[in-house]
């Protein structure tokens, strides 16, 4: 069972409404809570039924939310331009504010992040190592690669010349808000130096890093460089016949791996 709510946080000097979907909250506080963080163009709706399937397999509760500018959350202000630290601000400011607004208290969630959401998950666990139970990150970015930028340039052309805005409009109150916030910062020349490798050393929780061998937005170095840097358990899963979205290309493989990882690494609540 799931339900959709909205939470309001204060961010960037204004109230921001955050779209949230709870999955199986009736399972109770003794079960793991998995928080799903979407990709650079994602939203609650774009996950479809995948979070519910993960929670069912893991015996967990779930929280799916749309970051500011995405889905049914408050769109970007017209003059709001994201800077190189935009993922840091999501991890260090938005996520803690959301957890406070939702009254999670001392509960330590599992973070399940895809692409930009994976990077944000890593940054949150690095800044707040005692506030997260574990991480599952799909196709995260820890530094910028040429192939990533090249494909984001292709996406810009598609947005300008195809029906991509209409397609994204099915999932976002403002497709322009979602697309240009993400696209402009990734193609901003100073962003080429963005790199979070040095920050990963403070992560102490278990980490499962997943990537498709055919990922068009990054090489396998993105997850292989995580393992030697984190302080705790880190397992890698490299999936053949899989691109940048393992949860869409190989959902069953990802669900089984996630449920097993959580079961094997969760701390039991008395």
UniProtKB/TrEMBL annotation:
- Any one GO cellular component localisation term in the record: membrane
UniProt KW keywords: Hydrolase
The residues covered by the AB hydrolase-1 domain are 34-255
Reading the lineage from the top rank, the first entry is Bacteria
Q: Which Gene3D superfamilies match?
A: alpha/beta hydrolase
GO MF annotation list: hydrolase activity
Protein known as:
Alpha/beta hydrolase
Which species is the source of this protein? Acidovorax cavernicola
């Amino acid at each position: 069972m799931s339900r959709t709510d909205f939470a309001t946080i204060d961010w960037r000097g204004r109230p921001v409404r955050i779209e949230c979907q709870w999955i199986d909250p009736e399972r109770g506080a003794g079960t793991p809570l998995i928080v799903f963080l979407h990709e650079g163009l994602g939203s609650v709706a774009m996950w479809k039924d995948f979070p519910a399937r993960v929670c069912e397999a893991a015996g967990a509760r779930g929280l799916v939310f749309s970051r500011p500018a995405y889905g049914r959350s408050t769109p970007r202000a017209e003059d709001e331009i994201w800077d190189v630290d935009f993922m840091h601000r999501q991890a260090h400011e938005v996520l803690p504010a959301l957890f406070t607004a939702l009254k999670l208290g001392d509960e330590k969630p599992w973070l399940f992040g895809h692409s930009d959401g994976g990077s944000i998950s890593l940054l949150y666990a690095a800044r707040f190592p005692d506030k997260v139970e574990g991480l599952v990150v799909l196709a995260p970015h820890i530094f910028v690669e040429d192939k990533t930028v090249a494909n984001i340039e292709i996406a810009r052309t598609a947005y300008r010349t195809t029906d991509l805005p209409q397609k994204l409009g099915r999932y976002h109150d403002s497709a322009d808000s979602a697309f240009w916030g993400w696209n402009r910062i990734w193609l901003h020349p100073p962003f080429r130096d963005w790199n979070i490798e040095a920050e990963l050393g403070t992560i102490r929780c278990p980490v499962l890093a997943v990537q498709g061998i055919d990922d068009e937005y990054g090489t396998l170095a993105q997850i292989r460089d995580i393992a030697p840097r984190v302080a705790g358990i880190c397992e890698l899963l490299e999936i053949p016949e899989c691109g940048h979205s393992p949860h869409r290309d190989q959902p069953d493989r990802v669900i089984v791996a996630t449920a097993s990882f959580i079961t094997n690494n969760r701390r039991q609540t008395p």
